[in-house]
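[[Encoded backbone]]
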Amino acid sequence: MDGYRATMTETQTLLKSPLAAFHQEHGAKMVPYAGWELPLHYGSVADEHVWTREHGSLFDVSHMGRIRVSGQHARRFLDRVCTRLVRGMALGQCRYSLICNESGGCLDDVLVYSFAEDDFLVVCNGANRAKILAHFQTVAGQEDLKVKIDDQTVSTCMCALQGPDVMSLIGGLSTEIPTLKRYRFTVKNVLVMKIIVSRTGYTGEDGVEVILGANFAQQALGMMLKRSGDAPSIKPAGLAARDSLRMEAGMPLYGHELDESIDPLSARLDFAVKIDKGETDPQEGRFIGQDALQAIAEAGPTRHLVGLKLDGRRSPRQGMQVQHEGETVGTVTSGCPSPTLGHPIAMAYVPSALASSGTSLSVDLSGGTPATVVELPFYRRS
């Protein structure tokens, strides 16, 4: 889902995170992103990246859209707009899904939280919040579905705690949360605060994402960090480290690996598409874009997202050309020097015939830097 990519101009009014005072106190370099002012880093990006892999970091992700969908037709509505099956989700379950247009292109990738048969939360990318809200309103109106769509983004705060030390820290605050399975959540009442804690994340590490009221965010963060002791193993990290962490973990970022011209099958997100939705059980309903994706699946995608391991030390960037035997065959979507692996990495779309591991390519960087196709993710925690 959401990483770092500047999208605002300096003349636009930026929203402030509920944790703005915390970022200022810790010397964060603040930048505009997705309509918000957020921390890019607090010092060395590489150090924040490595600390997350070895210990744990706190990320402010309050810019992520948080849209509550409830009412009589809430489940039916979400099964119409989501590629994944919402019907039958267990209470307390999170499910990764795509939202597509009629041609099968990705409007966004989201997490759906199931609170009840008629009550869900959709977490979308910050830069897409207005687009997804408009899409939801249009679909609900056109299909005469009785749903309440409530944008709770500004009234809440969202942060992520990621890294190998996180669950032991959380265990000191709650015995229930460390027992959560991946992609499950619980709602905790702490004093007058209601906190949603999910075992999800965007770094390739274990950890949680936390949603709570904006008015209590600073207080809750202070309580949690105080419990971690005088030499806390959890430190704040910014958007830049979150981006390099998600790249190592092979996770797509909207605007890079995903957009409205890219289908989820080409992006290797087949697991998040129920391609036969509604065919065996009409109560499931078909999703928007299903016809187009079925056609792509039948013919086979003409291109695939791949990982690239590069020689040398220079890192590729989005938009650079990928070449094979002197001909341009694809485009880099994301790239960075990998602090964990010690060499540059990139993701790119290339023709399916060149997408097998071990294929030799090059990136138009310094006259053509050799690159080898490798399996995604680049990094998988032990």
